């Protein structure tokens, strides 16, 4: 199974455009439908946005470094903290996770591509279009400046077009993510190699499936909220306008009903990565595989039932607050299960402290800090004191930066040799890790103190007499330490790319299927679709258990199982590249501009035409020429 | 299909649902759409009744009229099934006939909605009038847009069949469009009930 080639139908009429044929150069990337290339595009774009969002953070920290900061004006500050949040969530952590999912899901389940390769390309281009659309607002009269949560009616009554760009931009990226979620979920459910039963899937794939379902069921909710906000602004409806009977709390419900599952969308991929990295470098199977899997699924389910803990201070009443306090405490249980399983995995393992391993261990340690401060939010009276203070900022940066970003960096160091045929330098890598580890704690640790001292979030300056200057300065120094660590990472990438490629198929003595094929993998991934006989199948092909539980290498096959490229993949049908995904996705921001600017309404029609041309060309595209 | 990890070695376990990818994808997409309409319907339920000044939906509803157009839309599910049955038998003429009928019924429904909207606006209820009218137009408008997309797909299928590019072996395409069409119909049953049939509460 798992051959995704469209059945050849030779004599079918041509589509609008010839099917593209380039295999190298810019056009090959623009028209690619190869999941690995799309994964790399996602990754490169996310890292670029990471630099932009990080720069915004540095400006924020410069402004707050001392009392009465003069670096940014209040309005610029508001734009920067809003775009920092939006960028890091929607254009860094989500697409970087999508990069790993795209690249690895087919490789780890033994498939040749995702279920819908052109749809996959469309997801990427629509995501990019949404990001550029949102960022264009900086040059068109000001970016969104009401926070990533965009509370109403503040956001929809604020002057300028920022809120319109926010709503339209997030609808576009939401569409991209929904499409991608359906695509990847179908891939995992339907396209596993023979023998790869659900409970032989790597944990990363399980987390992938959970994340896709979370996205598919939470994004439509915020889409509705965004449309209602857009209608309020553009068509004069009153959804969130309290003056005429509208209810601003509806926005908060819809937003957080999406927003909390979104939190798990951001963290579960990193948890999946860590669950792959720790066993490999501890040379032990993951402790309690089923527990980790079920804990992930439980987090996914319960994640839909805790959103009101973002709204304890709204005044929904003691019954609602108590119920959601309890559900929030319950969701800490599966998270704790995972932490203990990771520790069990390390226990008496044969640890190898590679950079990937250090980032994974760093993730576990720092995520616990973020998780514990999270539990303090579940206690309603305590949360009342913490709401809208820097304590909250400290909490979610510990889980999203020290958590998600550390996990994603572990993944980058771990799978880099698979994608590029070279290991990133360990020396630079360790410098990167330690700088980032110190920087993260230096930046976000003091924010706990600041929050408990009463420093509110979202303020652009504070007077000297409050005595908040010291810890703010420490946090700013920490932020620049993080920036330095990112520069070290970039230097590492450059240094590594100048070295000769080693093309090791299995550099880390891995356990999962992606290490059976060459590095980088051929376009068709596997010469022959592997047959899977157990969890960690690749490991069991390499090692058998000897007396007393010692590992005995299996003589034949094993690690150099990758010697695959002999026939060069002749006879393997792969989906052809296509122009239409990018054509269709270009229509979306054009519609967006038409919606944002009433005088340019005709752009909406023009964009819809482009979208339709793309979709019809797509539907009628012959499978091969 | 979730076998235990410890089960006997061997590569013969189910690793697929057996459903074609496109069909599974369509089901997942429709599941996602349920949440879209769920959020829209929730908003309407929150704002139904007579909130704010001016003309409200309950003042202008013509339930008999909307019942008839609802019946027309529901009837189109039958013709959709007949179209699928026709292509599975390889009967291209009846395929086009039933696809066309389905599209026509859909157009009658959307046309009815356009007429309904314009008459409401004449009676003084626009999308801006109050929070309830805004929620009404948004919910029913989203549904109307979904029906319109469905009509476009149906007409495209008619053209494809006319060009001879929708042979019996591609009956799955018709089935997928059918799944979408039935979904849009079923959602309308909920919307019609919630918006028109359940008596709205008094003013808040």
Which short descriptors sum up this protein?
heterodimer, A: mainly alpha, two-stranded antiparallel ribbon, 18 helices, disordered N terminus, B: Four Helix Bundle (Hemerythrin (Met), subunit A), 6 helices, 0% strand
How would you describe this structure to a colleague?
The complex is a heterodimer of chains A (625) and B (204). Chain A starts with 24 loop residues before the first helix and ends in a 5-residue tail after the last helix. Chain A has 625 residues and is mainly alpha-helical. In chain A, strands 1-2 form a two-stranded antiparallel ribbon. Chain A has helices spanning 25-30, 35-64, 74-109, 117-136, 154-157, 162-190, 203-235, 248-282, 289-302, 318-346, 355-378, 380-386, 390-420, 426-452, 469-498, 537-542, 580-596, 601-620, and strands at 543-545, 551-553. Chain B has one domain: Four Helix Bundle (Hemerythrin (Met), subunit A) (Up-down Bundle). Chain B is built from six helices and no strands. Chains A and B meet through helix 6, helix 7, helix 8 and helix 18 of A and helix 1 and helix 5 of B.
Fold topology:
The complex is a heterodimer of chains A (625) and B (204).
Chain A: H1 25-30, H2 35-64, H3 74-109, H4 117-136, H5 154-157, H6 162-190, H7 203-235, H8 248-282, H9 289-302, H10 318-346, H11 355-378, H12 380-386, H13 390-420, H14 426-452, H15 469-498, H16 537-542, E1 543-545, E2 551-553, H17 580-596, H18 601-620
Antiparallel strand pairs in A: 1-2
Helix pairs in contact in A: 2-3, 2-4, 2-15, 3-4, 3-6, 3-8, 3-13, 4-6, 4-17, 6-7, 6-17, 7-8, 7-9, 8-9, 8-11, 8-13, 9-10, 10-11, 11-13, 11-14, 13-14, 14-15, 17-18
Chain B: H1 21-47, H2 57-60, H3 63-89, H4 92-122, H5 131-162, H6 171-197
Helix pairs in contact in B: 1-5, 1-6, 3-4, 3-6, 4-5, 5-6
Q: What distance separates the N and C termini of chain B?
A: 51 Å
Q: Let me know the number of strands of chain B.
A: 0
| Range of strand content of chain B | under 5%
CATH superfamily of chain B, by name, is Cytochrome c oxidase, subunit III, four-helix bundle
User: Any idea what the shape of chain B is?
Assistant: globular
CATH topology of chain B: Four Helix Bundle (Hemerythrin (Met), subunit A)
Question: Taking all residues together, what is the mean pLDDT of chain B?
Answer: 90
Q: Please bin the fraction of helical residues of chain A.
A: 55-70%
Percent helix among the residues of chain B? over 70%
- Total helix count of chain B? 6
3D shape of chain A? globular
Largest sheet of chain A: 2 strands, antiparallel
Q: Count helical runs of chain A.
A: 18
Radius of gyration of chain B: 21 Å
Unreliable spans of chain A: 1-13, 558-565
Mean pLDDT of chain A: 91
Q: Could you give the count of β-strands of chain A? A: 2
CATH class of chain B: Mainly Alpha
Largest sheet of chain B: none
């Amino acid at each position: 199974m798992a051959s995704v080639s469209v059945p050849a139908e030779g004599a079918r009429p041509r589509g609008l455009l010839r099917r593209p044929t380039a295999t190298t150069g810019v056009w090959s990337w623009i028209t690619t439908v190869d999941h690995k290339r799309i994964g790399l595009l996602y990754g490169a774009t996310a890292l670029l946005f990471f630099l932009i969002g990080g720069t915004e953070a540095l400006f924020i920290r410069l402004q707050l470094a001392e009392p009465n900061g003069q670096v940014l004006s209040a309005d610029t500050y508001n734009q920067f903290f809003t775009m920092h949040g939006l960028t890091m969530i929607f254009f860094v952590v989500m697409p970087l996770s999508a990069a790993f999912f795209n690249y690895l899901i087919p490789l780890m389940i033994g498939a040749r591509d995702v279920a819908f390769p052109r749809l996959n390309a469309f997801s990427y281009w629509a995501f990019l279009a949404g990001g550029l659309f949102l960022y264009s607002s900086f040059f068109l009269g000001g970016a969104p400046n009401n926070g990533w949560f965009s509370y109403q009616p503040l956001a929809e009554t604020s002057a300028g077009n920022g809120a319109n760009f926010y709503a339209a931009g997030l609808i576009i990226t939401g569409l991209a993510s929904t499409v991608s979620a359906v695509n990847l979920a179908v891939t995992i459910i339907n396209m596993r190699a023979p023998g790869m039963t659900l409970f032989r899937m790597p944990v990363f794939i399980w987390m992938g499936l959970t994340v896709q379902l979370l996205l598919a069921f939470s994004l439509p909710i915020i889409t509705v909220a965004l449309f209602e906000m857009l209608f309020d602004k553009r068509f004069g409806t009153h959804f969130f306008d309290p003056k005429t009977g509208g209810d601003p709390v509806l926005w908060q419900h819809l937003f957080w009903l999406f927003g909390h599952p979104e939190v798990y969308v951001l963290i579960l991929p990193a948890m999946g990565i860590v669950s792959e990295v720790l066993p490999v470098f501890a040379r032990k199977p993951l402790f309690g595989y089923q527990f980790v899997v079920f804990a992930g699924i439980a987090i996914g389910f319960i994640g839909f039932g805790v959103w009101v803990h973002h709204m304890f201070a709204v005044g929904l009443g003691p019954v609602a607050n108590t119920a959601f306090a309890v559900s929030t405490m319950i969701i800490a249980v599966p998270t704790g299960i995972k932490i203990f399983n990771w520790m069990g995995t390390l226990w008496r393992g044969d640890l190898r402290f590679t950079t990937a391993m250090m980032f994974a261990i760093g993730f576990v340690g720092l995520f616990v800090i973020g998780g514990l401060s999270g539990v303090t939010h579940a206690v309603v009276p305590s949360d009342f004191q913490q709401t809208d203070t820097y304590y909250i900022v400290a909490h979610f940066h510990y889980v999203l930066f020290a958590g998600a970003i550390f996990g994603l960096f572990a993944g980058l160091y771990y799978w880099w040799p698979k994608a590029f045929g070279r290991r990133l330098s360990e020396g630079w890598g360790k410098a990167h890790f330690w700088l980032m580890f110190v920087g993260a704690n230096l930046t976000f640790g003091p924010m706990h103190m600041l929050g408990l001292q009463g420093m509110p979030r979202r303020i652009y300056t504070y007077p000297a007499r409050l005595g908040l200057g010291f810890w703010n300065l420490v946090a700013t120094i920490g932020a620049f330490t993080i920036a330095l660590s990112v520069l070290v990472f970039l230097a590492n990438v450059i240094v590594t790319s100048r070295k000769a490629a080693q093309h090791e198929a299995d550099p880390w003595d891995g356990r999962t299927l992606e290490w059976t094929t060459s590095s980088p993998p051929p376009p068709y991934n596997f010469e022959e679709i592997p047959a899977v006989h157990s969890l960690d199948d690749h490991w069991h092909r390499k090692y058998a258990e000897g007396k007393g539980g010692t590992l005995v290498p299996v003589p034949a096959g094993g690690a150099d199982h990758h010697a695959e490229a002999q026939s060069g993949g002749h006879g393997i049908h792969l989906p052809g590249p296509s122009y239409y995904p990018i054509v269709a996705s270009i229509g979306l921001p054009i519609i967006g501009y038409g919606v944002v600017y009433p005088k340019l309404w005709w752009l909406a029609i023009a964009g819809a035409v482009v979208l339709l041309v793309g979709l019809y060309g797509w539907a009628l595209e012959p499978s091969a020429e | 299909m979730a076998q235990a990890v410890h089960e006997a070695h061997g590569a013969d376990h189910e690793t697929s649902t057996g459903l074609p990818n496109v069909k599974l994808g369509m089901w997942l997409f429709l599941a996602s759409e349920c949440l879209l309409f769920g959020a829209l319907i929730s908003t309407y339920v929150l704002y139904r009744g007579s909130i704010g000044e001016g003309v409200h939906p309950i003042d202008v509803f013509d339930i008999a009229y909307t019942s008839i157009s609802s019946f027309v839309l529901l009837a189109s599910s039958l013709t959709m099934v007949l179209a699928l049955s026709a292509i599975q038998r390889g009967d291209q003429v009846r395929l086009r006939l039933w696809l066309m009928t389905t599209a026509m019924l859909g157009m009658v429904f959307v046309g009815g909605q356009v007429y309904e909207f314009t008459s409401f606006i004449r009676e003084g209820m626009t999308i801006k009038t109050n929070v309830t009218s805004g929620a009404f137009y948004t919910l029913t408008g989203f549904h109307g847009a979904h029906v319109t997309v469905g009509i476009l797909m149906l007409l495209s299928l008619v053209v494809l069949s006319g060009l001879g590019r929708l042979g019996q072996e591609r009956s799955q395409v018709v089935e997928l469009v059918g799944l979408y069409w039935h979904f849009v119909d079923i959602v309308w049953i909920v919307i019609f009930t919630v918006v028109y049939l359940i008596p709205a509460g008094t003013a808040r």
